[in-house]
Design a protein that fits this description.
Shape: flat
Order of helices and strands: EHHEEHHEEHH
Largest sheet: 3 strands, antiparallel
Number of helices: 6
Distance between the termini: 108 Å
Structural class: mainly alpha
Strand content: 5-15%
Radius of gyration: 32 Å
Strand order of the largest sheet: 1-3-2
């Protein structure tokens, strides 16, 4: 009769692992310390753990494969656009990207990029149109990374407009009440 539990040496042989790796695997599969502090894992628990791990790893591999395929398609598209530009005699425009730009948010935008409700302004040196490209890219990354920040800017402005309107009404009421007392 087979034992309902498997010990560390059997795990080492089954999975071709060294002692510490076998113990780690057994703990992940729900092993408990048996007599003499020897780890034992139930056969059913081990099978369930292996199946779960296999499904999880298969899903991760599938996502990596899909991401790799998408990246390949994107690279091909970029290469096609560059080839078309080259065929038209238009050199591709490129600029260096700093890692921080990829994580841009509305609070991290440089002072030359001003975002207000209903208006976005970008200041760059006259006669240097290429200087605006990294700023536009950084703005687009901020939108992608922090769309809530853009909404917040718009909502804060609405609140400020409401406060100004309330203040104007209060001012008018004060003026009216002071005029009526004379």
């Amino acid at each position: 009769m087979k034992s309902p539990q498997i010990d560390r040496p059997a795990i080492e042989e089954l999975f071709q692992l060294q002692r510490r790796a076998a113990i780690t695997l057994m703990k992940q599969a729900g092993a408990l310390a048996g007599p003499g502090e020897e780890f034992l894992v139930g056969r059913r628990e081990l099978v369930v753990w292996v199946e779960k791990t296999f499904k999880t790893e298969a899903a991760v591999l599938e996502r990596k494969k899909s991401a790799g395929e998408e990246l390949s398609r994107s690279v091909q598209e970029v290469q096609a656009v560059r080839a078309a530009l080259h065929a038209q005699g238009r050199p591709p425009v490129s600029f260096p990207l700093v890692d921080d730009v990829l994580r841009a948010t509305f609070t991290s935008l440089p002072s030359s990029v001003c975002v207000e409700p209903g208006r976005i302004t970008i200041d760059f040196p006259a006669g240097q149109p290429e200087a605006v490209l990294p700023l536009l890219y950084e703005l687009s990354m901020a939108i992608a990374n922090d769309f809530g920040g853009l909404r917040e800017i718009c909502n804060v402005a609405l609140s400020i407009d409401e406060l100004l309107s309330d203040l104007q009404r209060s001012k008018e009421l004060v003026i009216e009440s002071s005029c009526s007392t004379f």
